[in-house]
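Table S4 entry, Superoxide dismutase family protein.
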Amino acid sequence: MIRMLQIAAASMLGMSLIAANSARAADDKKDDAKPAVIVAVIKGTEAHKDIKGRLTFKDVDGGGVHVVGEISGLTPGKHGFHIHQKGDLSDPKLVSAGGHFNPGGTKHGGPGSDEKHAGDWGNIEANDKGVAKIEGTFKGVSLHGEKNGIMGRSVIVHAGADDLKTDPSGNSGDRIAGGVIEAKKPMTKDDAKKSVSDEAKKTVDDVKKGIDDLKKEIK
Ligand SMILES: [Cu+2]
């Protein structure tokens, strides 16, 4: 029995290594000279590890920033979604990100309010699978502006909905996930190779662990 399981596991391992190798071949063909993109890689706090996502930002002609992306691992429903002052996400509850980005010194509101913080981006809404798709243009900010630039600041997702009025935070509860807005170079060949080999190694480790677990179960 164990022998059969070992053969099955070994062939699974073989297949995943073949997959990893063909992924590597594809990465080698990628153009290394692509320009950097502005992204925020969203990660949940220690207490909300399942949350992850990625947002891409672009300056809009005539003002504002266009944002596209997806965040998963959320509880279904609305979650406050803001640009906070600082890109420091070192605190376990993300307190280090500071308050909402508010270069105008105004009161809290929502994207459609007359008075709002530049960082008041309202709410994102997760579907019943916990996935929020985000696409929108936010006025009053730019990527690199001296006064209203958001580069190096952070995107913060909250546990609850932003009521779009209560100053200063919209009463949206804990900070559960965040990401720093930064320029990322596309992966170089070396990065791609490393990520593929890391992935292959992880698969090998998973399969080994699977065999060990099965052996224990059989005993
Ligand atoms: Cu916030």
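Residues 189-218 form the longest helix (30 residues).
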